[in-house]
Amino acid sequence: MLTITLESEEVEPYLERAYRKIVQQANIPGFRKGKAPRRIIEQLYGREHLLHEAMDFLVPEVTNKAVEEASLELGGTPSVSLDEMEPVSITARVPLTPTVDLGVYRDIRVPKEQAKVSKKEIDEVLERMRLEVAPWEPVEEPVQLDDLLNVSVKGWVGDEEILNTERSDFVPREGSQVPAPGFAEQLVGMSAHETRSFSIAVPAEFDYAQVAGKTVHFEVENHIVKRRQPGKIDDEFAKGVGAGYDSLADLVKKVKADLVEEAEASFRSKHQEESLGKLVEMAKVELSPLIIEHELEHTIEHYQQSMKTGQVSMEQYQQYIRWAGKSEEEIRDDARPEALERIMRMLVLRELATQESLEVGDDDLREEIDRMAAVSNDESDEVRKMFESDDTLDSLRSLLLNRKAIEFLTSTTAQSGAASAKAKAKIKKKAPSTGRKKATAE
Description:
alpha+beta, Trigger factor, domain 2, 3 domains
């Protein structure tokens, strides 16, 4: 924490700057705009007004100068309060650069599952494909889940009609929430040309506010029941899947390859999460509470802005559900553990990159931008324009550096046997140093 008190002569240059700003905007009788002397401005507005105007640039400049003179390494934006105006006295809580000790991180071991695909899994995919390509055929049997119906539906809450559709196709699926929880299950057993009436008590937490917590009365007329009539899984079936396969064996080979790729991606993601979790758990981090508060402010501000624009991610929607009805302080308390987790992960990855001398060069940046442009097709020019500014390039560089750190970490944690012993011997032989100046965080 820094306490800064300024003498009158130290404040004077800032008062002069405040005067020059005010005089350019003031209309003073007898003087052209911008030409009134300072004594006239002070007589009209008062010295205190100049001092208040000067605070906009005095506070940050004086604080930054004090931080430099104290040789402090900032880890974030200082929290500054103006204690007195005469003499000017400022208190600045300075978040120092966090210190991170990763410990013997090369000793971390996390088992990584190997992707294996069973015949049962392949058969399940083939069966889903068989159903997807099968034609719908009318049946005389009662409705089952996953049949194709053509229904006319009316719905009321009290005397208010909330739904009125004529002859719409509808597939009742287990657990469906459309148009209300339990609606699909109510249709099971209906026949073609049958009309059925029923009521559903909708849970209070239902997303659709118009019916949440209320009882909805439905009247459903079913006009037809259709059901898929799947054929055999053979060479002819394989030729009709997607762009077509020469034989069932070729289709099975592709299905197996896709399942292996999907499983490997899932296991890789799980291994990364567990490895990073162990690294965070092992690390000793000295962290200013101010950094956490700034991250909280950024998180909530970004969330509020997204809600205003309507560009809401699934994570932000889940936050909306979780934070509904809470005060701002309660929201901050709820979000604080997640903010701390994000900061900790960022810090340990940054330190790991420093320890292992990982870098992201210009070639890495160009390669990633080319990759993103290639997958964006018609919007490739817009993608490239996004990375013309230094800020977006810095963000991309940080993202790629984190990716490299994660890749290094997982390659290390997955080592075993001789490779593990060799890595351990290497780290003991020469422990790298960050060369960072140690400081106690505020």
